[in-house]
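Researcher: I've been going back and forth with a colleague about how DUF1989 domain-containing protein might be arranged in three dimensions. Neither of us has a model we trust, so I'd like an independent prediction. The organism is Arenimonas soli, in case that matters for your notes. Sequence below.
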Amino acid sequence: MKTLHRIPPCSARAETLAAGDELVIVDPEGQQVSDLVAFNADDLDEYLSSGRSIDYAARLWLSTGDLLYSNRSRPMFEIIEDSCGRHDFTLTPCSKDTFRLIYGETDNRPGCEGNLAAALSPHGIGVDRIPIAFNVFMHVAFDPDTGAVSVKPPLSKPGDHIRLRALMPLVVGMTACSAGQSNNFRYKPIDYRVDRAAQ
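Model: Here is an independent structure prediction for DUF1989 domain-containing protein. You can compare it with whatever you and your colleague have in mind.
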C-alpha cells in the first residue's frame, strides 16, 4: 500500500512532478475540495489554464480522459481516473478578500490563495501568480437562464479520488480548502500521493 500524504484542513502543500509521474488526490472524509494549480517546472510563466482547458474540451466539467492545458495550449495533465466526476474549473481560490466580501470576515485568513502562495514560495511563485485553480471535488452549479452561480456541497464521498498524469515537469500546489461554501462548512483534510514514473 503506497503512503498517502495528508494536507491538514485550511492549508496547502507543493510537489514537483516529472513527466509521467501520477498525482492521486483523495477526499478521505467526503465533501472536501482541493484547489490544484500547476506550473511548468522549467518555465514558471507557463501555468495550468482554466480557459484553455475548458475551450478545448468544449464543456465545463472535466473528467476521465480529458486533458488539462497550459496558457500556451500545451497539455500539462491527463485525467486518467476519476471516481467523483464533478469538479470546478471556473472559480478562483478563496482568499482573505473572498472571506471579507462574501462572508463578512475581518480576521484576514489567507484562504487557499494565500496558502498556495506560501507553499509555492520556495519556487518563487507569489500570490499574484496564483491562477484560477482546478478545484478538485468542488460542486459549482450554473442557472442556464440567468447565469447565476451557486456553490453546492461537494458530491465526493469518503475515499473518492482523481488520478492525473503529468505530461511535462511540473511544480504543483494543492490545498485542503478553507472556504465554508466549498466543503459544506466542515473543514477537513485532503490526502494525496505521487506515483513516480519508472526511470
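Researcher: What would you highlight for our discussion?
Model: I'd start with this: The CA atoms of residues 92 and 132 lie 5 Å apart. After that, consider the following. The two ends are 20 Å apart (CA to CA).
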